[in-house]
């Protein structure tokens, strides 16, 4: 078993490749790590030189293939979830205090203010145009996309698992994966599938003397109030799992195998788990 870990997209990424160590495995792991770094350079809203930052600053650009692909996936997800998943929550996140990387958030700040979401985004060929007054945040779905891309690269070589802070893909064999519950952890056997988690138990900070978090309710333009502390979803891809986890957290019906942890401290297995 070959392993590699590094930091990217605000979290620790772990790569596991189930083949004999050697030049082939080293090259595959290096390609997967480079893919994470490449996509972060393009898609991070925290990097002023990223392609996403250029789009948010200018309102319209001729974009590269990856930004077009992830933005298209995000818009499709918005349509499919009735607006529960919305890439135009950027300004609501900033107004909630998430205006820099989580590691750099500190202290208290001004009270959270509501910001409009649901802005129009037009894609025509390589051109992406934003409705004036709206900007994109692609954080979660970009991370899922990167996990999927890295797994594709490793999967060409052998059975693999890619884990980026709980967003993970397992390919070509059964992998034991721990999922946090209210009472500890359960282990799921994951084969040719993905897992993603949305929750408010880790990324929290204070604004106006009250706690805020990064999961925005697009209907209100504010951090969401939910019956759940954490939602973990199993889906065919990490990109899809990201979308479903956010939608279920905001009240969408369960459409896939899901582990729900309620704010009352209960664990519910749904969608065929149990």
H and E string: EEHHEHHEEHEEEEEEEEEEHEE
Query: How confident overall, as mean pLDDT?
Result: 94
Q: Per DSSP, what share of the residues sits in E-state strands of 2 or more residues?
A: 25-35%
What would the principal axes of the Cα set say about the shape? globular
State the helical fraction: 25-40%
* CATH-level-4 superfamily name: ApbE-like domains
Terminal residue distance: 30 Å
Oligomeric organization of the protein chains: single chain
What's the level 1 CATH class? Alpha Beta
Overall number of domains: 1
**Which architecture would the CATH scheme give at its second level?**
Roll
Helix and strand content put the structural class at alpha+beta
Spatially, the strands of the biggest sheet line up as 1-2-6-7-10-15-16-17
CATH topology: T-fold
As residue ranges, the low-confidence spans are none
Number of helices: 6
Give an overview of the whole structure.
The longest helix has 21 residues, at 23-43. The protein is built from six helices and 17 strands. The strands form five sheets. It has an eight-stranded antiparallel β-sheet with strand order 1-2-6-7-10-15-16-17. A three-stranded antiparallel β-sheet has the order 3-5-4, with helices on one face. The chain has one domain (2-270): T-fold, CATH 3.10.520. It has 274 residues and is of the alpha+beta class. The model has no long low-confidence stretch (mean pLDDT 94).
């Amino acid at each position: 078993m070959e392993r590699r870990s590094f930091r990217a997209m605000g979290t620790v990424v772990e790569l596991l490749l189930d083949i004999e160590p050697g030049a082939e495995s080293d090259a595959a792991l290096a390609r997967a790590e480079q893919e994470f770094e490449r996509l972060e350079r393009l898609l991070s809203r925290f990097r002023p030189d990223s392609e996403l930052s250029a789009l948010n600053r200018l309102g319209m650009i001729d974009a590269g293939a990856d930004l077009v692909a992830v933005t298209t996936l995000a818009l499709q997800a918005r349509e499919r979830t009735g607006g529960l998943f919305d890439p135009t929550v950027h300004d609501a996140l900033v107004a909630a205090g998430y205006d820099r990387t989580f590691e750099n958030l500190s202290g208290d700040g001004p009270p959270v203010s509501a910001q409009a979401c649901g802005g129009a985004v037009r894609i025509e060929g390589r051109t992406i145009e934003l409705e004036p007054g709206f900007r994109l945040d692609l954080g979660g779905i970009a991370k899922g996309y990167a996990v999927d891309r890295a797994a594709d690269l490793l999967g060409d070589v052998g059975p693999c698992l890619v884990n980026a802070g709980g967003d993970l893909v397992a390919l070509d064999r059964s992998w034991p994966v721990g999922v946090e519950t209210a009472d500890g952890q359960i282990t799921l056997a994951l084969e040719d599938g993905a897992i993603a988690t949305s929750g408010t138990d880790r990324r929290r900070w204070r604004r106006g003397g009250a706690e805020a978090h990064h999961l925005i309710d697009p209907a209100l333009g504010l951090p969401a109030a939910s019956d759940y502390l954490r939602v973990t979803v199993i889906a065919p891809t990490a990109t899809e799992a990201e979308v479903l986890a956010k939608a279920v957290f905001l009240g969408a019906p369960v459409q896939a195998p899901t582990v729900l942890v309620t704010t009352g401290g209960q664990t519910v297995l749904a969608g065929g788990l149990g």
